[in-house]
Design a protein that fits this description.
By secondary structure, the chain is α+β, with helices and mostly antiparallel strands. Helices cover 23% and strands 21% of the residues. It has 6 helices and 10 strands. The strands form 3 sheets. It has a 4-stranded antiparallel sheet with strand order 1-6-7-5. The chain has a 4-stranded antiparallel sheet with strand order 2-3-4-8, covered by helices on one side. The protein has a two-stranded antiparallel ribbon with strand order 9-10. Helix 1 crosses helix 6 and helix 3 packs across helix 6. It is elongated. The two termini are 30 Å apart.
Length: 275
Amino acid sequence: MPELPEVETTRRGIEAALCGQTLSGAVLRNTQLRWPVPPDLSDIVAGRQVLRVWRRAKYLLFDLGAGHLIVHLGMSGSLRVVAADLPPAKHDHIDLLFASPDGTRALRYRDPRRFGALLWQPGELIFHPLLQALGPEPLEQTFTPDYLQQALAGKRVAIKLAVMDNHIVVGVGNIYANEALFRAGIAPSRAAGDLRPAEYARLHAAIRSTLTEAIEAGGSTLRDFVDSEGKPGYFQQRYFVYDRAEQPCFKCGSPIRQMRQGQRSSWWCPNCQAG
């Protein structure tokens, strides 16, 4: 599933092409995604200018003035700017059409598993239920070591599950939680409220550095993800622990271990993450 770095990579790839553009409508080939796509989407977007393309957690948000389009890539979704007359492939479900003089371009949404979403929120975006009660963005100033320590104080849940909780901090999915905990030298099974102040500070720094490097690398491509130009990410070449069970740790040589936490796999080095 695309995580924050993959979504941010997509946002950066389409931002320049979309901002300032006026939309002429939409082509709906399949509206049965995770939630039904508004059947009148073409009428909703026609004549509206894209004022801003931004991201909240794993949601892409297109500011059209009177409201926002909310896009989630689900498990296999992608967005690409294409020629409007390019014949759609099997899983190309939606086109947003640019109102350029020659009418030659479209933003195409592709989703083989159809677990993503494209929704319309009129008026204030804050009132949409998907965006309520989200924690701070991990790369913004509101996310600090002190905030992390206070948010996790007294929690007995495992630290890996805590940092994946969008109510605490958004966008730290399974891949990047594993990698950040390795960089911070913290075992994923530690109780979230038992860390020392220096460990919260290390984990805070590790979350930010891991996500920043992943964005710079174009995210991770394990199966489906490609950016807005159809190119895969390559951060998976830098994994220390994720999906490396029984392989030697790059730092100490100990075999990487694997366990289940919250129905997801966790990987860690028993030596480097002994604390």
